[in-house]
Amino acid sequence: SGVLAGIYALAGAWYANQVVSTPYYPGGLRLHYDLVTDALYKLLLTAALVLISSLATGFILSQRKAKKLGLTIWNNASRKLLLDLGIPLLAGGAFLLLLVWRGNYELIASACLVFYGLALVNGSHSTFREIYYLGICEIVLGLLLLLTAGNALLFWSLGFGVLHIVYGLFMYYRYDR
Question: Residue 126 pLDDT > 90, yes or no?
């Protein structure tokens, strides 16, 4: 599921790059304010689709593995994990929506990475220890992004795409092979 989530994120980043790179005049000026609003809606929809696809894939594959092992996916450990992940993710989601509402678009990609990383670090107490290290890497990428201008899609692709693919392959070879 980590590999597929990474692939979804890279596909979303590719599409987002298409959205943000097309509505400019050669001088770098936006064609019209409506295109900026249209681009924002497309980016938000793309992010939501990547998130929903990743969560659905993770759930389906986890359900399939649990069934194969004769286990149930909904138990005390999964409820604790959901709570541990949910609090930072919901706080981060609210923070991101407020950034969008206030027009602070330059902070969105960084905040996505940082809050997601915090959720993983918090959730690592209820699941595999390796998630802790993935979370730390996400946080570091989010903070590094704040130091660089104009690299949001690159860092977002690294964090949600490449790191998930590497993590997914590592976990597969370590536990599922």
Answer: no
